[in-house]
Each structure stands twice: as C-alpha cells, then as structure tokens.
Amino acid sequence: MNESQPASAGMAAPGPWRFETPGGGGIGVLAIDAPGQKVNVLSYEMLDELASQLERIPHLGLSGLVITSGKPRTFVTGADVREIQAIRTAEEGALKAARGQAIFQRLAMLATPTLAAIDGLCLGGGTELALACRYRVASDFERTFIGLPEVRLGILPGYGGSTRLPRLIGLPAALDLILTGKTVDAMRAYKLGLVDDVLPREDFVTRAVDWLSARLDAAALRRVRAERRGRRTGPPAWMLEGNPLGRALVFSQARKGVMRETHGHYPAPLKVLDILPQTGRGPIPEALALEARAVGELLVTPEHKNLLSIFFLTEGAKKDPPTPHAVDVQSVGVLGAGVMGGGIAFALSDVGIPARLKDVAPEAVGKGLKAAYDLYQRRVRRRRLKPAVRDRKMRLIAGGTDYAGFSRLDAVIEAIVEKLEIKQTVLAEVEAHLPAHAILLTNTSSLDVDTMASRMASPERLAGLHFFNPVDRMPLVEIIVGARTSKAATETALALARRLGKTPVVVKNAPGFLVNRILMPYLNEGLHLFRQGVHIETLDDAMVDFGMPMGPLRLLDEIGLDVADKVSHVLGAAFGDRVDPAGVLDAMVAGGRIGKKGGLGFYRYRDGVGTSDPAVYPLADRPSRDVITAGPGAWRERMILAMINEAARCLEESIVESPAQVDLAMIMGTGFPPFRGGLLRHADMLGLPVVADRLRALAQVHGARFEPCALIGRMALDGYRFRPEFD
Amino acid sequence: MAIGIDETSGRSIVIVDGVRTPFAKSGAALKDVPAHELGRVAIQEVLARTGFDPAALDEVVLGNCGTPADAANIGRVSALEAGVPRSVPAFTVHRNCASGIESIAQAAYKIGAGAAGAIIAGGTESMSNYPLMFGRELADAFAASAREKSLPGKLAPFLRLKPSALAPRIAILEGLTDPVSGLNMGQTAEVLAREFAISRAAQDAFALESHRRTIAAWDEGRLQDEVVAVYPAPGFAPVPQDVGPRREQTLEQLAKLRPFFDRRHGTVTVGNACPITDGAAAVLVMDEERALAEGYRPLGRLRSFAFAGLDPERMGLGPVYAAPVALARAGVTLADMALIEINEAFAAQVLACLAAFDSDLFAREKLGLSRAVGAIDPARLNVNGGAIALGHPVGVSGTRIVLTLLKELRRRGGGLGLATLCVGGGQGAAVVVESMPEAA
Asked: Within chain B, what is the greatest distance between any pair of CA atoms?
C-alpha cells in the first residue's frame, strides 16, 4: 500500500498487509499476506509496509486491531534470512535491528488495543511482532507452534523479542525458549502466558475479533495480566526473579546448561545470557538498544555465518535435485528386522508410510517391531507422543517371514547383514516378488552397489540408501548411484529420504561412499594416537573440545569395533598403502571387544555408561614421548587434517558434487561441529596453504598417509578456497 | 425352498483369499491383544496379500460374540485400524458360534443383491478379555453414590450392600449358558452323549485325532499359509502358530480327566471339548466376474448358505439341520462333498451329528426327509484337525473352517466342500463351497 493512496477503512487494500473491518464494531483486521509467497517472511519491505499501515491506524477511529495472517497454515515464519546474510558489519546489523524494533515499538505504543491472532507456524520476527501486541491468542490447529529460533542461526531475537519475552513470561521460561530456540504448541504457549487464550480454528479471525472486543478497556487488560501470572507453574516469581539473588541463580543455572550443551563454542546463547539480565527489566528503549547492539555483534561472527550456510544447505537439500521421475511410494517393504531395519520401519511409519518388515525368523521380526516401538515409547515417556498415536503408527508396520504382500509394494529397503553374497541372493529373490515399477534400495555402508545388483533381472532398479545409526536421530542419508542405477531409482530414493525428514546427499558408488570414507582416516588416526600412547579419555576429550559429539575411540565403540574393522579392511583393499591402518582393531576384535553393543571396547560399559578400560593399553605400542607431549592441539590437527585430505580426494574423484555437500554430509552424518560450518569450511578457515604445509610436515614424521592429495596442493598454490561463497 | 445365491441374481460370488491369526487358548499368548486388534491384523493382512485397494471395498463385516465395551461395533474399529478408509462402512454380526459364517453370508447376500462388489468378512474374538461385570445391586450403589456430595453420603450406598452383591458376574460363563434352556454348552453336549450313546472312549479318541491331525497339518506345512503371525505389544514376542494343539497328547492323559459339566455321570471333559480361545480371521469376498477381471485367482465359489433352528438343549445337532438345506440349495448331495468341516465344539457333539446324518429315523422324524442325509467318511472330515485342538473363538470359527476348507480343497486339486457349525441357542449353519483352480 502506498501512502499517497487514499486510506479507506473497510476496503481490502492490495499489498502484503490487507486491512479490513469485517465485523463492524470498530475493530479492524490487518491480515499479513506477502504477495506471491507461500509464507509470510518479514523482509525490510514488509516491515516498511507495516510501518505505513501503523501510521494510518490511529486516524481510523478503530476500537481495536487484530493482526493475523492471510496464509492458510502459517502466521509469520521470521525475518528474511537472505537479507540477514547480506549484512556485513556489526553496525549495519544493529541498525537493521533497530529499524525493525522501532516499527514494533510503534505497534506496542498504539493506544488502540491490539491482538495477534496466531494460526499456524509463528517464528522469530513473527513472534516478536506478536509480542509487541497487547494480547495474543493462538488457534488450536495442530500445526500452531510459536518460538524464537534465532540462536539456532547463531544470533538472538533482535526485533524486541529479547526485551519483551522475559517481561511477558518471566525470566526462566524466556531463557528456556530463547536459549534452545525450541517451539511450543498453543496449549503450552497458553500455560506459559505467551498467548492469552487458545481459540478454535474454525472462524478463527471472527472469534479473535470477538475476543478482543470483550477486552478493550483497561480493566480487561489488568484481568488478563493477572490471569497470565496465575497460569504460571513453578516457584513464585518473587523467589527467582523478584530479587537479585534469585536472578543470579537463574542465570548461573542457565549458563551451566549452555556450557554443558555447547562447551562454549556457540557465542549466541552466551550473548543471550549476557544481555537478558538487562533487557528483561528496566526502561524499554535502553533494553532495545542493548539488544540491537548484541544482535549486530553476533551477525558478524563466523559461527553465525556458518550456521546460516548450513541452514541454506539443508533447505537446498530438501528441494535439489528435484525428483520428477520418482515412483509414487505408497508402501515400503523392509528386509532385515535388526536395529537398522526396525529403525527404518519406525522412520517410515512415523511419516505415515505403511511398512512390511520381513526377516527370516519370527523372533527377528519381533525384535525389529520392538526396536521401532521402543523409539516411539521414548517419545511417549517424554510426553511428546500420545500412546494412541504410538499405537496408530505401529499399526502401519506389519511383520512377516515371507514375501506375502510384496506384490503391491512400491519400494523395498534392504537392511540385512552386510555380506555381499547374501545381499545379492536376497535382492534377486525379492525382485521376483515385486511389481515391475517397484524400486529396490540397499542400505549398505560399505558394499559395492553395482556388484550387489549383478544378479538382479533389472539391475537398474537398485540404488543405495545409506542410513546412519541411530536412524531416528541421524539426519543424513547417502543416496548411492550405481553405474546402472536408473533415474527413477535415484529419484525415488531422494524423494523417500526427504519424506522421512532426512537430509539426502547424492554420492557416487565407490568404497566407503562419502561419510565413512572420510571418517575412516580420522578414526584410523585416532587409533594411531592410541597406539602411540595417548590415553583414551584425553584423546576423546581433544575432539569433544573441538566440538565433535564424541571422540574417535568412543565413536568406534558406538559403531562397533567389528563393523569398523570390516569397513577398514574394505577401504584398505580399495586404497592400498596410503591407508596405513593402525592395526589395533584386529587385536581388539580378536580379544572379544566389539564395542558398546558387547559391553566392552575402548570403554567398559555398565548401564550404558562407559569408563575407559585400562586393560586395552597393552594393545598399544611403547608410548611415544614426542606424541604425548605434543598435546591435544597436535593430536587434533592429525585427525582433522587426515579427514580434510580424504575429503579433497573424494572431490577429485567426483564422489560428491561440491565441497558444500561434503560439509553438509559431515555435519548431518557425523555431528561435525555445525558452528565450524563443515569440514572443508574449516579447512578454508585454517587456510589451504597451511593445510598443505602441515600435511607435508606430518608426512615427514608419520608417514605417507599424510601426503596431501593433488587437489589440496593445487588449490593452496593457486589461492583457491573450498567454500568461496563465504567471501 | 432352494434359494441358492446363483439363482437370485445370476451373480457368482467368490472368496478371493483369506487369512487368520494363530488361535491361542485364552489366557495364553494372545491374552493381552484386544479383539479389535486381532481383527485389525487379519483385515490388514488380507488387504496386503490380495493387494486389494481398501478404498475400493464396499463394506467390512466381522463376527463377534463377546462385544467389548470399548468397541461395540468392533468391525468398524478393526477396519479403521487396519487402514480401511473412513469412507468404507463396517458392521458387526452376532449369531453366536456361527458369527464367522454369518459375516460371509452377509457379504455374499449383499454382493448377490448387487449392493456391493467387494467385502471383507471375518470374525474376531478375545475370550481372554471377556469382562467381569458388576451385579445389579453394586451398579445401583455406584449410581447412588455418584449422586451424593459428601464423603459419608458417597460411602453409604456401599455400606448397605450384602457381601454377596460384591461378587462379579463372569461374562464368559454367562455367555456360554443358554438362557432359554438354562443349560450351559457343555451340558447340551452331555445331553447328546447320552441320547446318542457316545462313549467317553469314543469322545477321547476323537479328541486325540483332532490334536494329531492339527499337529500333522502344521508339521507338513498345510496351515502355515492360512496364518499370519501376531506380534503383541509391547514385547512383540512372535505368536506364529496356534497355541493349543498338543503334540504329546495321549489317550491315557485324556482318560484321566474328570468330567467337567456333570461331575458324577458325565463324559464331557475339558480334554474332549474345545477350549475357549482368542483369534481372528478375514476373507475377501467378491463378485466373481469382477475378481477375475481384476486378475485374481479366487480360492473358490460360495454355492449356498443355510441357517436352521432347533431345540436349544440339543444345539450340537445344528449341522444336521442346516447342511441338508444348504446342499439342496446348491443342488448337490452330501456324497458330492470332497471335504467336510464340522466345527468341533465337543467331540460328543460331532459324533452325535455323524450318527444323526446317517440315520433314516432321525431324517424322517426331525428333518422331514424320507431318508438319511448320508454317511460321512471320517477321512474326509476335519482333515487338518479342528476346534478341540485349535480352540473355538466363537465369532471366528465359521470363517476359519470356510478358509481352511477352501485352501485344502485347492491343495487336493479341487471339488466341493461343506462347512457347518452348531450354534449355541439351538441353531445350525452350513455353507457349500466349490474350489477354483490356482492356475488359469
């Protein structure tokens, strides 16, 4: 809407902020409806439009104003991340935040009572917009979720959210929401006092107008405020927030939690803890200024840039490449009812896809069903899932020991034992029971997809779909394209992975594919360090300090030493001498240590808790004083550079399309620290000339396995970077 | 009075395929699985095995006798839980022990009348989950208590109760007792044993043979194909086979059992009667023309049905009353039957039926026929065992015997078959089927 146009109440105006007075009675409705967009995003332009609308409002003689969304399933999903990405300096960031704050402040200062009516997803800037209204109501729509996820992008709520949320719902609850970035459903928001009522979704806007028209005077405001406080649970506000001691306690507890979760690697939550003591109380203008400065500072941190890039990569993986030739998958067979098969059946049923779980013996099928059930049950125990929904989803999984019913499946995921001979036989066998259009997907971590397909009548129907353990928590899926794999098979795998909420990365069929291939030199280097006398926990801690979810030896225990041993032999056979296996695994496995699943690996497990087992040290060589005294930094360097070198080789061999894909895969598949932006982004940060030099130096001391690959040498020489998009 | 389905409409009706859960003695492997869940498993599996689009179903109908309080129209509950779309209606039928045939009959009649083209029929029963009920006096006390406001007021109605009012009514005992004659089912079997002079030894021998045949059928892979394993939550320990047939059963053990229903002079024991049991079964019933057009090779045709009424005290003779009518409607005779299934409620009852089938006197006096319906060769009767070994989930057995009959007929290369049951309350049910070949 242009300001030069005559403003007329009651007439729908073109533009993103549609203004109308539906019910009469002097209450206006401002519907946010970004033209040509699926969801409302608060771009600068959208904010400017809001500003001009707000200028008109006082002159319209309205008794109240309801702000709602013109989109069917969302309110406002936040600020425009592309605009955020373009911000270059802290000053610019603070300025942009201040501009948005000023507009929301104008909204907050309106004499006209305002109500945000939230139906659907409401995130970030959307929530901050709602916070600037006098009242908020949410619909009982199952997809109404409200939150401030800014910290997940390495920033903090900068359009007044850090200032208004603690004042509205109290310090502990506000910290919980802002620090975790989690969303809450309508009922939870109501209990927190974040919304003042939950209204039926039908005729939501009309109900919101009625709701506001009953709460236009000052007495109503006092009543609603009292009700908000009355709903809060936990210790009374005066105990924690009403005195300096209580506040200090709240903050120190929150800080402990943040340090436990992030090891101090993420500046955003720490910044939140720094400013909230001041933004949460006292005069608003000062609070807003502090908030704007803080967000400006965070916007230029590498952590923010890295997290934002991962956000874009993840979003990209949801769409690209597109899958026009994918088979429409209505139901899926799962072969092999182990932990993996059960996990896959869980993932399928969780998104509503019927699964037939087949194994040889009924007992195995029962175990697979139980594995899936236990994953649901975990959510039930955390009250994230109702038992009735668990049962409904479990009913989508049918168990069996024969191929009954396979003739109507659209796809089969094979997750049986990792033995080539058996996989070849089973794939050929199941193929005979499937309809002609059905796609076969093999969940292999190390076997060759082309060889696996060799006995099939139509080998082009087979693609690899490599899930990572545990399936319910690891977001990555590698899509493996064999030499004969059809477009339909590849795209079906991609589309299915996306439906399961996974992040797919397309890789070439080569030993170890992508993630395991890069991971093996890292684990191998960890084993070398162990062999050279570094203590188990110190070694693992070195990588945890780097930001990995766990160190290499603990990870080996998790994977299973027998499995890791097998994979390392496959890779050893494929890549020959340059692998230089540390040789510890063979002895460990021979000694009955297979890792966590057997209760014994580098760690000894009791009730799921592992403590390092001194009994394995005899498997190491005589400790090398040089290596031990070199310290965690040097150990880390060896392990990280080993990975970077292998990742560069994968690029040389076109295993994967781009360095960004490597980074996405390593973060989603191994938990490589997101704040570092990925393995190759980290290499860029180190500087490729440094990487090349250090690799050469390490090769001098520890052997040829560190010899930098040609690509790294060339890029270092020519001044190229893996992820130039960051520049 | 012959009203064969063929003759009403010219439509031929087939059973495409079917499946049942294992049958498990109540209180055993399936005790924690509610009836609607058993029904769900059977329906879902039939859909999976036939590949029939559930949205194309016209109806789902299940037999069920012990109506669970939380799933009164259990056919509907099971259908929805099996993934049958909401748009497909479902109902539940109750004709006591013949409920599982009644459901198939309902499907056939609807298709025959042109009111439907594809229906899933079957039955489900969890006799483990038959409830204990409050007696009237106790129920009244709860109601009175609910009306009071104060605690003493709420307690008072209970304090006035006689201790005997606290004893629960046991649904399964009441359900297995005929309210008209006052006899329970076992007592009706005693009546037949006496009137037809069926000895204890003959009953025990029949029971032993039921176990032997069932075990042999499993061992030789003849039952595998009609059964889908059940995995009860939350342990998911598989129940792949029937829990009831006893491999080690001997005549000596059977002979040691005390008569259960008439302790002093009776001959019916828990060993020569069917156990109360949990299970479910479902079949896909279709218009033959449509089934063939969709590429199915149906198990067989439904040629005729008959239901008959008789003296409730002699309900066990139901098959003798119903079978001749079904045979006549199909235009065939007992001698034409390649295989026969008579549900084994009691050994005495089946043996009494065999005697009555072969009796000119019985035919003249009770059935109004000029001569006996015919003799039944034991070698063609219940060839894969029966309810004495497998158990008799009352709402399901009708579907099971039709299913097992069709599968066995096909295995033997075709022919006609008769499936018939006695029905508590004094009824008989019978169906004549015709096997169809697997290959075109």
From this structure: 77
